[in-house]
Amino acid sequence: MLKQTQVTQFFDRVQKKVKIQRSVEKIEKNQDSCISLTGTTTPQKKNIDDWIVKKNSSKNWPYLPKMFMYQIFRFLQLKDCFICALVCRFWKLCYHNIYFSYNFFKEFSISNYNEQELSAVLRRASPDMKHIKKFREIFKGQKLGAILQKTNLETTLSSEYNKTGQLIESFKLEPKRQQSSVFLTDKDIQSILSGSHISLQFMQLVSCQFMTGKGFEHLKSCTFLTHLNITNNQNIQDKNLSQILPKLKQLQTLILVQLQQVTEEVFLSIRGLTKLDRLDLSYNPQIQFNNITILKVLKISSLGLKDNFLDNDQLRLIVECLPSITSLNLQGCLFVNSYSLHLLRNLCLKRLNISKIHLSPEDIESLVKDNQSLYQVIANNNILNDRVYQILQQRINN
């Protein structure tokens, strides 16, 4: 009788365990249905952490930490991440949680996505990814397919993006075709800069023809900016740059290329940039370099003057007031001649670009021999003889 009672109690306990196990499996099944790969509901962040803790304590081998999974997914296209989600339940959770992931969206480039993927990112990204929200507002009303064909947008998220004014570290916007422009308005740039005026360090705006000079003036709030590139714009003027540049005391690289309304008055705005190392003023037909002596207080090592109207008198002023130049771009400066090369001997040049200029091979060879620091020369192929190649290669090897 006693044995029969013990056996009955044993089967009761087994039956209870089976019921509990079935209840747990039912709950897990319901959770999986909520995060199906085709659904729109995204699991909370803590679910994946609970999953890792639970599985690592019950299995002989551990699951990878989620930060490693995000790093792996970061090197994959979104469609490849979708395929990885088919491996197991854990990878499925990781796939859905990338929409919350700082590591996945830290470096964001729309060229990494097709139209369907970009639409999914803009729609499903976590509210914590505020830069995605801003891009969603900028792209609103535009066809994503057309944007992907014409525009290249790249950004880097700040490590302290949750703090006020520290959203983005770098912003790069340019067209994929040279003769086209990108659609960015004054309101758009104001929205981007308002949340990144402390953290922003790199800004590149190429062919933003829909922006006015007033729109560019919002850049003056980014006082920690170290790299500024404004290329191909017909609206920005000297008065706009005079509002922007004096505020950017940390600027190290300044690229102002193909700005039709900018004149030599821009030198007055540049002279206060004491940390400036690289200056590019290529293809600015309105700039006369007679007043470049204003910049003699600066120690610029790289200067770009491509496709400018530059004569020997102006080149002499440049050499005299900026003796620290080690890299010089004179491509397409048609008034440069053999006497110009003679002036360049007073500089300790390391890199020189004189392509699209009619010079003799003897002039180039003489310049290379006299300037011992020169190790890279870009010129028309017919004026670089074997002797020059040999000298330059020997300097590179040493």
Describe the structure.
It contains 17 helices and 11 strands. The chain starts with a helix and ends with a helix. Helix 14 packs parallel to helix 15 and helix 16 (361-370) runs parallel beside helix 17 (386-397). It has 398 residues and is an alpha/beta fold.
Secondary-structure element series? HHHHHHEHHHEEHEHEHEHEEHEHEHEH
Largest sheet: 11 strands, mixed
Task: List the total number of helices.
Answer: 17
Average the pLDDT over all residues and give the rounded result.
82
Give the fraction of residues assigned to helices. Answer: 40-55%
Q: Give Rg in angstroms.
A: 30 Å
Number of strands: 11
Strand order of the largest sheet: 1-2-3-4-5-6-7-8-9-10-11
Q: Distance N terminus to C terminus?
A: 99 Å
Strand-residue fraction?
5-15%
Q: What does the overall shape look like?
A: globular
Structural class: alpha/beta
Uncertain segments are: 26-46
Summarize the structure.
This protein is α/β, with parallel strands linked by helices and 398 residues long.
Please outline the helices and strands.
Blueprint: H1 2-34, H2 45-58, H3 66-74, H4 78-84, H5 89-97, H6 102-105, E1 107-109, H7 115-124, H8 130-139, H9 144-150, E2 151-157, E3 168-175, H10 186-194, E4 202-206, H11 213-216, E5 227-233, H12 238-244, E6 253-259, H13 266-270, E7 278-280, E8 302-304, H14 312-321, E9 327-329, H15 338-344, E10 351-353, H16 361-370, E11 376-378, H17 386-397
Parallel strand pairs: 3-4, 4-5, 5-6, 6-7, 7-8, 8-9, 9-10, 10-11
Antiparallel strand pairs: 1-2, 2-3
Helix pairs in contact: 2-5, 14-15, 16-17
